[in-house]
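Lab notebook: predicted structure, single chain.

Context: the supervisor wants predicted structures on file for every construct in the current expression panel, including those that have not yet been purified. This is the next one on the list. No modifications to the sequence; it matches the entry in the shared construct table.
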Amino acid sequence: MDKNTWIGFLLIAAIIVGFTMLNRPSKEELAERQRVQDSIAFAQAAMQEAQRLADSVSFAMSEAEPTAQPVVEETRPEEQFVKLENEHLRLTLSSYGGAIQRAELLEYHASGDSINPLCLFRADESSFGFTLITINNRILQTSKLIFTPVESDAPNKAILRWYGANEDAWLDFVYELSDNYMVHLDLVPHNMQNELAQNINSLELQWRQLIPQQEQGRKFEERYAQLQYMLVGGEMEKLSESKDDSEKEAARVKWIGYKDQFFSTVLIADDAFSSSEFHSTLQSKYSGYIKEYNTHTSVPFDLTGKNPTGFRFYCGPNHYHTLKAYDEGVAKEDRLYLNKLVPLGWKIVSWINTALVIPMFDIFTSWGLHIGIVILLMTIVIKLIILPFVFVSYKSSAKMRVLKPQIDEINAKFPADKMQERQQATMQLYQQAGVSPMSGCLPMLFQFPVLMAMFWFLPTAIELRGKSLWWADDLSTYDAVFHWSFNIPLLGDHLSLFCLLMTICNIGYTYITMQSQATDPNMKFMKYMMYAMPLMFLFIFNDYAAGLSYYYLLSLFITILQTMIFRWSIDDKKLLQEMEENKKKKAGKPKSGFMERLEKMQREQQRLAREQAKAANKRR
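Prediction complete. Output recorded below exactly as produced.
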């Protein structure tokens, strides 16, 4: 190594030695460290001696007579249950935690079980409780406390009481079941000022629930199972139904709904929830559960008990009229709008459902008719309503078919490079003959929202649940007639008969439509696409409710009958003669404003095209 390297090493060594000398502890610090070490050693020795003495005592007791020292074991009180029941709902309350342990709907059954009432949740599937802070800063969870049932002075009323350290201080959970699906819960403290923290003015609430699979069609039950909540003011919010989701809500919340396809458990605050956090978690298809919902929120709490903290639980079906009835006679600002738990589609579709479909369904079901007849009558009424528009559409397509030879002449006269002249001549022919190409679209513009209304209504109508029709045991789910052990992409592991019949009927209707329309032989691909659409519906609707496929089957069958009647009533020769006479009447008359504007636009496009062509030639 050279001289510079040696110098560098010496400097580094000098720095290290100097740093060590500067940071060396003083005599006082060394004495303090020794004192601490001596104290630690003394404490450890004392602990070892105490342990040795304890072991000696334990050995001596084990050698003594069994009766010399009795052993006292602390036992947990036996769990007690309180039941509240009316003709709709049965609730089981537990002394362990003071919460609802089980909720059963007496008028409904789970899929495949025609004996036992449908159970919304059981003890191991739900937990509900509050966080209490004692005066000495201990944290208690009411879900882990032992409550004592207290005799109540009213029927269908239960009081579960938790006593504090002082027997004169307690917290009551007061439940009262009404005559429907609603149960009231009040938290009433008594002399708890010396038990709970003085500055407490709210309680944290934790609510968890697993949603069991109740229906045959898990795919649709997952689609409609959703955590929804209503903000104070009426705005509805929801978590994703197709993936794990969570949401933190700073605004005040009026109610929280744990929703299944046909049933819900809803927690409603008398005041409001604040600082809420919601979680929705998908469950494995082999677990027997659809979703797991979790809520962490807070509610106001009056320690003096003058203003009890109040809630309502709705444990019942997603039935539109049942839910809407809770807002009858209630001021607008106090309405719950629980009927929004029933999915009725987009705004215009929802309006059609509430204004037309649901009232019509109620009328027909009130006659005591079979559900299959009800859907048939609804289909007929809907078809009669849109019949005038369908007739206009068919007549327009018939006119287009009759005019096809003249349109072919125009296409031959104006080749493809003169497309604007061809379009202008075609539009002039349509105007003279009294044909409007847009008239064929009007029925679809009216019919499509109605079709979508039925698409939303039938799969979620709880009235169809458990109702049978021919081979279909339950119109609210698919009617599988063939099963296989493997999964076919898009189709699944079964084939629904109503869906298959609807597909066959749809192919027949497509064939009839193609025969009655003027088609270009050069567009064979479009013809094949028309037949491919019904086959796509087989894959789309195979998992849907049988009631919906039954409705579409009836609708298509009636449409085919209408088409055949229209074809029989409209004579092509008379229609052509009528259009020729219409041409003569309009000959020499001024053009309509629409046609003048259209021709003006076409002339402007032609002028711009010519100018662009000239500019291109000059650049060359």
